TrEMBL record:
Belongs to the membrane fusion protein (MFP) (TC 8.A.1) family. Gene3D superfamilies: 2.40.30.170, 2.40.420.20, 2.40.50.100. The chain crosses the membrane at residues 9-30. It comes from Breznakiella homolactica. The lineage of its organism: Bacteria, Pseudomonadati, Spirochaetota, Spirochaetia, Spirochaetales. This is Efflux RND transporter periplasmic adaptor subunit. SUPFAM superfamilies: HlyD-like secretion proteins (SSF111369). Residues 91-160 form the Multidrug resistance protein MdtA-like barrel-sandwich hybrid domain. The keyword Membrane applies.
Length: 322
């Protein structure tokens, strides 16, 4: 009885495994057929025709359909994309020298004040005692960014009466993930984008780099200065920053989708004048969202398969479509 039960369980397991293998085989076959169908689908309006094949070549009907791109020399950049906030480089909070009640506020947000100008007054008097009002003065020249108090408010010497900053010198502050910290240094160029100013790019460069990482967030604080002043950029604006960490020119480039990663190696397929695909191992350099630099294994002008390469084998006949 026990042996019969075990035999029945083994039989069921084998049947289930056989069904699963059959389903997986069918799925792979369907995916390959769909990929080939997409490659062979050429829009009628474009007038594009498949590339001609050499006469007398056998197995033309069974050739794998591919698209190709030539290896081209060009420039490529590595960059880090982060978000940042616009701040004033020079910004201070203004505090009274005595505690008491605000008797007068002489400024509003947006006003320009000069160093030493009176911005408010504090009455330090207490019940039964009367003292002269104490003036609160701006320690620097600049624009009033905030006024968090009103007449009658009780303040201490740790209560900010207003905040003054220089709008003529704004910076972008952002934080770089630890894995990019070694590539960041003063003077690196950057491009800054603002949702509030769409379709415009503002040139900047790294001006300050913190000497230490934040142990909590594992990030590095940096500040960027703009190469040209623009009055539309104001403190508090949210930005997206592209920091260029490395640039190379005149190097062989191929599309990212051409590269196959396999067992720690990078593989592409090239196509010769007889429409034969050849498996090629390559070495990679810089990369961005669209292209990858090839440091070894390809020459300028060679045709690299950019679509359909996942179904190819070495020395296989292919049919090129546009």
């Amino acid at each position: 009885m026990k042996n019969a039960k075990v035999s029945r369980i083994v039989t069921i397991i084998l049947v289930v495994l056989t069904v699963l293998i059959g389903v997986l085989t069918l799925v792979v076959y369907i995916q390959k057929r769909e990929a080939q169908a997409q490659l062979t689908a050429v829009p009628e309006s474009s007038g594009a025709q498949p590339a001609p094949r050499p006469q007398g070549q056998a197995g033309a009907r069974s050739a794998t359909v591919v698209r190709v791109r030539p290896v081209e020399l060009g420039s490529i950049e590595n960059y880090v994309t982060v978000n940042g906030d616009v701040l004033t480089r020079s910004q201070v909070a203004v505090y009274p020298t005595v505690a008491g009640k605000i008797s007068e506020v002489r400024v509003r947000i947006g006003d320009y004040v000069r160093q030493g100008q009176i911005v408010a007054a504090v009455d330090p008097s207490r019940p039964g005692d009367s003292y002269s009002h104490s003036p609160v003065t701006a320690p620097i020249s600049g624009t009033v960014l905030s006024v968090p108090v009103n007449p009658g408010d009780t303040v201490s010497t740790q209560t900010a009466v207003c905040t003054v900053g220089s709008l003529s010198d704004v910076v972008v502050e952002t934080f770089i993930p630890e894995r990019f910290a070694a590539a960041v240094r003063r003077g690196l160029p950057a491009a800054v984008f603002f949702e509030a100013i769409p379709q415009e790019v503002f040139a900047a460069e790294i001006d300050e780099v913190s000497p230490v990482l934040d142990p909590a967030s594992r990030t590095l604080r940096i500040r960027l200065r703009f190469l040209q002043r623009d009055d539309r950029i104001i403190p508090g604006m949210f930005s997206t920053v592209h920091i260029v960490t490395n640039t190379r020119s005149g190097v062989p480039l191929i599309p990212r989708e051409s590269v196959i990663s396999t067992y720690g190696s990078w593989i592409v397929f090239t196509v010769d004048e007889n429409n034969i695909a050849h498996r090629r191992e390559i070495q990679l350099g810089l990369e961005n969202e669209d292209f990858i630099e090839v440091t070894e294994g390809l020459e300028d002008g060679e045709l690299v398969v950019s679509a359909g390469q996942n179904f190819l084998s070495d020395n296989e006949t292919v049919r090129i479509v546009d």
